[in-house]
Amino acid sequence: MDYSCEPVHSTLLNIQAKEPFNAEPTAAALVEFPITPEDLVYCRNHGPVREFDEDTCMLSISGLVKQEVKHSVRELKTNFATKEVVAALQCAGIRRNEMGAIKKVNGVPWKDGVIANCKWGGIRLRDLLLHCGVQDAPENTQLHVCFSSYATLCEDDTYYGASIPLERALDEAADVLIAFEMNDEILSPDHGGPLRVVVPGYLGARWVKWLDTIIICAHESPNFYQQRDYKILPPEIDTKDKARDEWSKYPSMTSLPLNSVIASVHHSSSPSSSSSTLLVKGYSTPGSTGNVKRVEITIDEGKTWHPATITYQQGKWSWTIWEIELVSGAASVEIPQTGTAYSRAIDEQGNAQPKESAWNVRGVAYNAWGIGRW
Ligand SMILES: Nc1nc2c(c(=O)[nH]1)N[C@H]1C(S)=C(S)[C@@H](COP(=O)(O)O)O[C@H]1N2
Ligand SMILES: [Mo]
Predict the structure, then answer these.
(1) Which atom of ligand 1 lies closest to the CA of 209?
(2) Looking at ligand 1, which atom is closest to the CA of residue 45?
(3) I need a labelling partner for 276 at 20 to 30 A (CA). Which of 22, 71, 323, 345 fits?
(4) Pair 275, 228 in one domain
(5) 337 in the same domain as 189
(6) Where is each Moybdenum cofactor oxidoreductase dimerisation domain found (predicted)?
(7) 192 and 63 in one domain?
(8) Dmax over Cα atoms in the chain, in whole Å?
(9) Could you read off the pLDDT of 286-336 as tens digits, one per residue?
């Protein structure tokens, strides 16, 4: 594959691989900003990053539509109403290094930095589909919106593809966008410009970058990344070889689970008094059952939970930033010189993030209690 045309990438990211370019910031840097600045937005690629001229890029819509259409980016911008949504983009492999510590997993050993809470601007996919008209589905058939980028090459297939159920695409409340802006700027090549899909609440793999083709189908995208990756296989399938004939038996992932991560822990004790303080900061993301309602911290292995203060949350699709300051002596907290803090998130329906997360060979959807040491 040709990596000679890569744009200049952010220098604030820790590089996991140069070709394809895969890099993430630290969680400690991320939680300092409610809206993630572009320089801190992780990059996840399955092939070369390419820069495209907006004036020559086209988006085609075909398949089970009443009218096949092809639009230039400019036409999309002028013919449809624009919409903005704040939503967290997150890779399914977030915290894979922690799952890999349980037992070997396949994939980029991402830490907890593959998340970006950005303001996305574009047009609603719903408007585009209503404009083309979607054909009636054959009885008992669920239709899917398949997204492809033929414009770039990738490692495991001849194009990058993903799909979402048509129902999700047409749901006005789901805010699915064809985006051309990120944080009020033109979407950069690194993040899929000129056009990328934004599916709030779904894993990043479905947010197809450099989007050029939409096909309405009676089946999911046949692409490798929809069919043979981004699935939670049961733990007994523990090698690539064993997985080979199993993929089709398991559903493609849609949302990611309720999660929280400890991004930083600062312990300070003053020599003059016996008191010490612990400042813990982190972020949290919802699962599919409502946004994060509470985040709690324990420094005694789960015997006592202390409520953290939520300092940022915006709408249905954002991440949550939280912090807590524990002071020894107050509220009978004892803070040892060294220790371990854990975080857990609780959502609007009262579901709590689990203490442990089940292992799977691709190391996706890890959501055990967040952990931080001092
Ligand atoms: N065309 C294309 N789209 C893609 C990918 C890719 O490799 N190629 N990677 C996907 C994955 S797995 C993730 S997590 C997000 C990452 O988006 P980002 O690089 O803007 O952070 O893009 C998704 N869209
Ligand atoms: Mo991803």
Answers:
(1) 3
(2) 7
(3) 345
(4) no
(5) no
(6) 253-369
(7) yes
(8) 77
(9) 999 999 999 999 999 999 999 999 999 999 999 999 999 999 976 678 999
Give the DSSP H or E segment for 242.
Answer: helix 240-243
Please, are residues 161 and 222 in contact by the beta-carbon 8 Å criterion? yes
245 and 319 co-located in one domain: no
Is 211 a residue whose pLDDT tops 90? yes
pLDDT tens digit sequence for 256-271? 999 999 999 999 987 7
Are 361 and 106 in contact, with CB atoms under 8 Å apart? Answer: yes
Task: Say yes or no: CB of residue 207 within 6 Å of ligand 1.
Answer: yes
Same domain for 263 and 228: no
pLDDT of residue 152: 86
Global pTM reads 0.97
* Domain, as residue range, for 218: 52-89+116-249
B/e letters for 217-246, b = 16+ CB within 10 Å, e = fewer, are beebbebbbbbbbbbbbeeebbeeeebeee
Q: Which ligand is nearest to the CA of 154?
A: 1
- How many C-beta atoms lie closer than 10 Å to residue 139's C-beta? 5
